[in-house]
Amino acid sequence: MLSLRGVGYRYAGYSTPVLHDIDLTLADGEIVGLVGANESGKSTLCLVTCGLAPGSIGGALTGGGLVIDGEPMAGKPLHEFSTRVGIGFQNPITQLSGVTGSVFEEVALGPMNLGLTQRDTVERTKEALATLGIEHLAEREPRRISGGQGQLVVIASLLAMRPPHLVLDEPTAQLDPEGTRLVGEALRGLAANGTALLVAEHKTDLLDGLCRRVIVLEEGRIVLDGPAGAVLEDERLIDWGVDLPARVRLARATAAAGIDPTMVSV
Amino acid sequence: MLGGYLGPTAIIAVMLVLAVRGGVLGTIVRASLLLTLPIAISVVLVSVFTRAGTTVLLQIGPFDATLEGVDFAGQTLVRLFAISLSIGLFVLTTDPRALVFDLERRGLSPRAAFVAVATIEAVPTLVERAAVIGESQRARGLDTEGSLRARLRGLLPLVGPVILGSLTDVEERSLALESRAFSRPGRRHLLWSMPDESWQRAVRWALGATLVLAIVARITGRL
Ligand SMILES: Nc1ncnc2c1ncn2[C@@H]1O[C@H](COP(=O)(O)OP(=O)(O)OP(=O)(O)O)[C@@H](O)[C@H]1O
Ligand SMILES: [Mg+2]
User: Fold this and answer.
1) CB B105 within 8 A of CB B190
2) Which fold has domain A1-84+163-173+191-259?
3) Per the confidence metrics, is the pTM higher than 0.95?
4) Residues lying with their CB under 5 A of ligand 2, a single-atom ion
5) Domain range list for chain A
6) Is A215 exposed, middle or buried (0-12, 13-18, 19+ CB in 10 A)?
């Protein structure tokens, strides 16, 4: 379990914080969606949740702190975060290490960095590839696979670190519908195995049916946090710059047109 | 007089045999010829006609072609060819990644190894990116074809996106690497090891010793 209590954060060189008073809990096996307009602070919150902000990019917490499995993480060296919470970004290409010739080596890089023995590294790599169902990509050159598969490779290489928590910042932003479906399925599988997931997404259709909870950010504050079904149907989402899922839009359109909603199925 | 040819020719012979074994004979001969040809032509012209010597073979205007000049040109050519073949063989048959990882096994720090491989691997990525950006700039009317000047002018607007693009890449990549414990101090266990048999080690030692001997012999004037 990972939690932020009353966390604020400001970027290096700025005096005003971009995150204010964030309370967030990620329970094991739970998928939490994170939505909000552009610039509302989703990416920043992702970086704070996994310790890279301020740990790697600088800046400072202006309040509160990150606690993982009961342990306050303040002051811990960065590499200790990597086995507790992994983070993935939107572009699969820039997340590749650029130093490996095959997907297998790419996924193995993290465990290797942990100083594991060759046997453990190979075992973890195989397991991560199997979990995401991409064993068949093992021999492929990482740079020469499709975006959706690339994102699965990225997630696999995070999984090989065996973190109990995973933060993904718009994992499907650059993916086509098929790639998005692949990633969505993979995430569902991970949560079923007990991984806690925080997924920042503009695609509310993906979050609908995937998440248990959804958090809405506006100007660096959490303005709504609740069960996915209720949040994604909230009247105010549009004001907060969040697209409604197709299901909700359709229901509203039919209601507005005076059609009995039970006659329409999605 | 033949002494000057013996060493380089022996090296060329060995390199050619190794190139055949490595299946790169055609590529390597073509590349070496292409690389050495411009230098070779100028060396031949300059040394054949300007080198002082007693045995004049033919005269063109004020220039004498001397046997000594031909000899000098010949020796330079075999040396050039020997050098380019050995470098070519190394480049064509050694995976840079394998080289660097083997260096890491021998004590190079994982960080230095990463920097070395990332640099080697960045070249094709940069070239690809430049091509993509070039295409999109052309689609928006930028002239990157035509006369040399037009092309140089066309290249300038590409420099920014290529370099800035790779800088933001670097930022994201370093975060992604951080998430995979890249900053953890200490050694790692590499996934594979290079096959290194005892005869290979022996050959390497022998080559190293020969190099030292050759240098000593040269300095003391025995070669
Ligand atoms: N490196 C940075 N330095 C300074 N300020 C930044 C930096 N990155 C983001 N910000 C600022 O922090 C605020 C939140 O940005 P953030 O990228 O977290 O938003 P986001 O919700 O992820 O937006 P998007 O939907 O566009 O990805 C914005 O006001 C932005 O200008
Ligand atoms: Mg963002």
Assistant:
1) yes
2) Rossmann fold (3.40.50)
3) no
4) A 42-43
5) 1-84+163-173+191-259, 94-162
6) buried
Mutate to test the pocket of ligand 1, among A9, A11, A223 (most ligand atoms within 8 A of CB): A11
Q: Is A18 in the pocket of ligand 1 (CB under 6 A)?
A: yes
Report whether A151 contacts A180 (CB < 8 A).
Answer: no
* Peptide bond preceding A54 in cis form (omega within 30 of 0): yes
Q: Which domain holds residue B112?
A: 97-179
CA distance B164 to chain A (A): 13
Q: What is the pLDDT of residues B52-61, one digit of tens each?
A: 777 777 787 7
A65-89, pLDDT tens digit by residue? 999 999 999 889 888 898 999 999 9
Q: What span, in angstroms and rounded, lies between the C-alpha atoms of A159 and A161?
A: 5
Distance A22 CA to ligand 1 centre (A): 16
Residue B144: CA atoms inside 13 Å, Cβ hemisphere, count? 18
CA nearest to A215, candidates A12, A51, A50, A4: A4
Amino acid A112 reads M
